[in-house]
Write a structure and sequence with these properties.
The structure holds two protein chains of two kinds.
Chain A lengths: L16 E2 L4 E4 L4 E3 L7 E7 L4 H17 L4 E8 L4 H10 L5 E5 L1 H8 L6 E5 L4 E7 L4 H8 L4
Parallel strand pairs in A: 4-5, 5-6
Antiparallel strand pairs in A: 1-8, 2-3, 2-6, 4-7, 7-8
Chain B lengths: L3 H10 L11 E2 L2 E2 L5 H10 L9 H4 L18 H6 L6 E3 L2 H10 L3 E6 L4 H11 L2 H10 L1 E6 L4 H15 L6 E5 L5 E5 L13 H14 L1 H22 L7 H14 L16 H14 L2 H16 L13 E2 L7 E2 L2 E2 H18 L2 H16 L12 E2 L16 H7 L2 H10 L23 H8 L3 H19 L7 E2 L2 E2 H18 L2 H18 E2 L3 E7 L2 E5 L2 H18 L2 H17 L36 H16 L2 H14 L11 H11 L4 E5 L5 H12 L6 E5 L11 H13 L3 E6 L2 E2 L6 H10 L6
Parallel strand pairs in B: 3-5, 4-5, 17-18
Antiparallel strand pairs in B: 1-2, 4-6, 6-7, 8-9, 10-11, 11-12, 13-15, 14-15, 15-16, 17-19, 19-20
The chains are: A alpha+beta, B alpha+beta.
Chain lengths: ~150, ~775
């Protein structure tokens, strides 16, 4: 009851809005555009290696990714303020992360996606429309329920 | 002055030093046992009167008094003092019970404390008396225990005596079978019969006779009581699930039992109930319920103005005997002052009221000046109520003449009004003596005397200083210089908070000095903290409260210094508590290790959840485990915290302010307060600024952890901290990571943003 989040204008980035175009950095230095994923259902997860609640959510994301990858779900973890690509790769290995990790710049993410709390996840349908926004770690069941109808 | 007579009556009604929990309540679960044999015995034989033992039995062959007893070499000053009594006292131990079994005599167990006025009265009236000594030495094996030294023994026998007599307190006078089971008990007894109540001499004779002539019945009574206590133990630790609504129901109970007229709880005697005030302030911060703030404000205001506060020397007395907080029992305990110091600091943060700061500083002034070793570190246990065994608060009270002798006419005129000092005071033994409490505000005095209020105020200040000087000429009540570890840990935590809130660096220095002293003298790897340290010797390792309070103080020290060593030691202590004290069947912690043979009532397992008189050990354990889980990123500790809280969830309803710490622990477990991790080079000025901003910002239950990547090996760090440290390697700039509830704010390097985030992140928009 007390941990309701302070989310200014959350509604402005809610259901059925087109996702803003964005470019993230891949771990090998390549630039990855969000628009490249159009046609897939995308679960965008903003996280950081420093964020305990984010770490708790990782196993859930791994499971949802492994379950729906083949049916057209792309889970994209956008790492914020999490060190060098090598650090992140080591972290991924340690936590057995099998979904795609890209690097995001904090200022841009705060502005473009209005992220005020980590982890924040955004579910995007095949048409590039935002369908749902999650603040705080979610369980695999929650993701499954929302992802499945969009596939 | 209208209620003075009733105040005096009240003092007479309660001739013992009361416990926080009282009047037939053991916490909140009633245990009442009527013991058949003894009861029948009173009814039938009382009319015959005392002296039922035969002449030869009274003057048996071995009845000659034996010079000295076994207490001379005890560490406790209370026990040492009794070494001169004509009773053949034994300290608690095998030898005493063996003797009782060999001679088939009942045991007289006296549990008291050196600070306790009625224990002194009992000593002077009974235990110094040759006739009484003769009866005891002849028919009983006598054991004397210092309640501060042995809280584990005290707790168990208090429960037993409460069950049969309806109330506990000190001196606790219990009669046991040679196996240590209680068959009769009470608190203070006058020597001679009074009205239809038996005096101690009569009681001793009757019980000796009962044991001799109706032994089977006495033993059956003891068994019956023992069974009832087992049932009580089961009742007081019923499992359940935890939720916000459980917290809410305890909160409602606390609000209901609040005395809205005088502040505090209960309508008779007033104990501080610092945990309830702490809970009210913390819950108010998130709910903004004005009733909760009123509980804190009214209670703290009333205590600050009352006789329960030493108006001249600072520091709080143990409790007041009246609902208005006016007439105290004059002993000053370090633990009350630790918890109240935190109350006043938090209330000051919450309200900014100068009075609260003034009282917090007054408490520290007293502790620094009287109740601590400023050179070596360490807080002394307590200060006695009386100057001698005979007086009753004479040190702290004043006759009109004494005031006039100490002050100028002008000062006296003001102060007599301010403290309502008159020819008829509040003290029963010495009716001319007045307790100092604020009775008339300076504004009213100014009107009365037709002088400016500023002048009245300065006269009051001046008079207070001069009265204190005059008081210092009196014989100072004794200070017990034992260092109790749990209580020292509480004071370390309170002083570290004072350092943050008041910017008092001396408080921080002294707290850390004391912490280091305890680690050097009272900590052993594998054994944890001892309970007491005195004259070079640490004793009684392994009690729950010492481990938990010390772990808590170590975590506080870690927050303030960023020294990893403190975090690791806190972890060691909680690991030890989990291995030695954890109840693997039902969850929660026992108060003492269960391994090995235990003597008498110590055999009975006990898990404390009430704040009695200080924050409950199991509530504190849950709070500490949750902090540790966060600081080490180890969910296993969080699980143990949850299991601890669940272990009592089914029995806390209706307990109100007695389970405030438990309620607070549940609240924080469900609703995580702000947690700030700050990464950077400690010496970096910006780092200092971020750190300070997090520490000084008021947010009940917040945690602050600081890591310096230039000092630490990444592999030793918790995973999330390691992540942040790696990011630091890229940025090179200090950063604060602030989380609350189940999310984290975007990292920041701005001190102002740190203040805002620590204060509000994760809360509903306020």
């Amino acid at each position: 009851m007390l941990s309701l989040l302070l989310v200014p204008n959350a509604a402005a980035l809610n259901e059925t809005m087109p996702v803003p175009d964005a470019t993230f950095q891949g771990l090998t230095g390549t630039q990855v555009r969000l628009a490249d994923f159009k046609g897939k259902v995308v679960l965008l997860n903003f996280w950081g290696t420093w964020c305990v609640p984010c770490l708790r959510e990782i196993p859930e994301l791994v499971r949802v990714s492994e379950q729906f990858q083949k049916r057209g779900l792309a889970v994209l973890g956008i790492a914020v303020d999490s060190g060098r690509p090598d650090d992140i790769r080591a972290f991924m290995a340690e936590h057995r992360m099998t979904y795609t990790i890209l690097i995001g710049e904090l200022g841009f993410i705060k502005k473009a996606f209005r992220v005020v709390g980590f982890p924040t996840s955004i579910l995007i349908d095949r048409q590039g429309m935002i369908r749902k926004r999650y603040v705080g770690p979610q369980s695999v069941e929650v993701f499954k329920n929302d992802v499945e109808p969009l596939l | 002055m209208s209620n003075r007579y009733s105040d005096q009556d009240r003092r007479e009604e309660n001739p013992n030093c009361l416990r926080f929990l009282r009047n037939g309540l053991t916490g909140w679960i009633k245990i009442t046992v009527v013991l058949g044999v003894i009861f029948a015995f009173w009814m039938t034989d009382w009319a015959i009167g005392p002296g039922a033992l035969s002449e030869t039995e009274q003057k048996g062959a071995s009845g000659a008094p034996v010079a000295g007893n076994q207490l001379a070499h005890e560490a406790s000053p209370y026990l040492r003092e009794a070494a001169l009594e004509p009773i053949q006292w034994f300290p608690w131990g095998d030898a005493a019970f063996r003797r009782a079994q060999q001679e088939d005599k009942p045991v007289l167990l006296d549990i008291g404390a050196i600070w306790c006025h009625w224990c002194h009265v009992m000593d002077v009236e009974n235990y110094d008396n040759e006739e009484v000594a003769f009866l005891i030495n002849q028919h009983f094996v006598a054991i004397k225990v210092d309640m501060d030294e042995r809280p584990d023994i005290d707790r168990r026998y208090q429960l037993a005596v409460q069950a049969i007599s309806g109330s506990g307190g000190w001196p606790l006078t219990a009669f046991l079978t040679p196996e240590g089971k209680v068959f009769y008990g009470g608190t203070y007894f006058p020597r001679e019969d009074r009205f239809f109540r038996p005096g101690f001499k009569t009681l001793l004779q009757k019980l000796a006779q009962a044991y001799k002539t109706r032994k089977a019945g006495v033993l059956a009574d003891a068994e019956q009581l023992s069974g009832a206590l087992q049932r009580y133990a089961a009742e007081s630790t019923k499992p359940g699930s935890i939720s916000d609504s459980l917290v809410q129901s305890i909160s409602i109970d606390i609000t209901k039992s609040f005395d809205a007229v005088n502040g505090g709880f209960s309508t008779e005697v007033k104990f501080p109930a610092a945990s309830a005030v702490e809970f009210a302030l913390a819950k108010y911060f998130v709910s903004h319920d004005p009733k909760l703030l009123e509980i804190a404000n009214k209670t703290l205001d009333a205590m600050a103005q009352g006789g329960v506060y030493d108006q001249l020397g600072g520091g709080f007395f143990r409790y007041a005997t009246d609902p208005q907080w006016r007439i105290p029992h004059f002993e000053k305990m370090n633990y009350d002052n630790a918890e109240l110091l935190r109350n006043y600091l938090h209330a000051y943060q919450a309200t900014g009221k100068p009075l609260y700061r003034e009282i917090a500083e007054g408490v520290m002034e007293y502790l620094n000046g009287v109740l601590s070793d400023q050179v070596n570190g360490g807080f002394f246990a307590h200060q006695d109520a009386d100057m001698t065994r005979q007086d009753d608060g004479d040190y702290y009270t004043w006759t009109v003449q004494e005031v006039k002798d100490a002050l100028s006419k002008e000062e006296a005129e003001v102060i007599l009004r301010y403290y309502d000092i008159g020819p008829l005071g509040e003290m029963k033994e010495n009716p001319g003596k007045n307790v100092l409490y604020v009775a008339m505000p300076p504004e009213a005095i100014a009107r009365d005397l037709g002088s400016p209020v500023e002048k009245v105020r300065s006269l009051i200040d001046q008079a207070k200083r001069r009265l204190l000087q005059a008081r210092m000429k009196r014989k100072t009540p004794l200070v017990d210089k034992t260092l109790y570890i749990d209580r020292n840990a509480m004071l370390i935590s309170a002083y570290l908070e004072a350092a943050e809130v008041l910017g008092n660096d001396q408080a921080k220095t002294f707290a850390l000095k004391t912490l280091e002293l305890l680690l050097r003298k009272a900590y052993r790897e594998g054994q944890g903290m001892s309970h007491a340290y005195f004259e070079g010797t640490a004793r009684l390792p392994g009690l729950l409260n010492d481990q938990v309070q010390m772990a808590n103080a170590l975590l506080d020290a870690f927050e303030v210094t960023g020294e990893q060593r403190y975090l690791m030691l806190a972890k060691d202590l909680m690991d030890l508590a989990l291995s030695l004290l954890w109840d693997s069947k039902e969850g929660g912690f026992f108060d003492r290790p269960r391994q090995g043979a235990a003597l008498a009532a110590l055999e009975r397992p006990l898990k404390n959840i009430e704040d009695n008189p200080t924050a409950s050990p199991n509530g504190m354990a849950a709070l500490v485990l949750d902090r540790l889980a966060y600081l080490t990123n180890n969910e296993a500790y969080e699980q143990k915290a949850l299991q601890t809280l669940q272990a009592f969830a089914g029995s806390v309803k209706g307990a109100g302010h007695f389970v405030a710490t438990y309620a607070l622990a549940v609240h924080y477990h469900i609703n995580r307060s702000a947690q700030a991790v700050i990464i950077g080079k400690k010496s970096h000025p910006k780092m200092q600024l971020l750190w300070k901003s997090a520490l000084m910002t008021y947010r009940p239950g917040k945690m602050v952890a600081v890591y310096d990547p230039t000092e630490l090996k990444v592999k030793d760090l918790p995973p999330a901290v390691a992540g942040a440290v790696k990011a630091f390697g890229v940025q090179g700039e200090p950063r604060a990571y602030i989380c609350a509830g189940s999310t984290c704010a975007p990292p920041t390097g701005d001190p102002n943003e740190v203040v805002t985030l620590v204060k509000t992140y994760g809360l509903e928009k306020s």
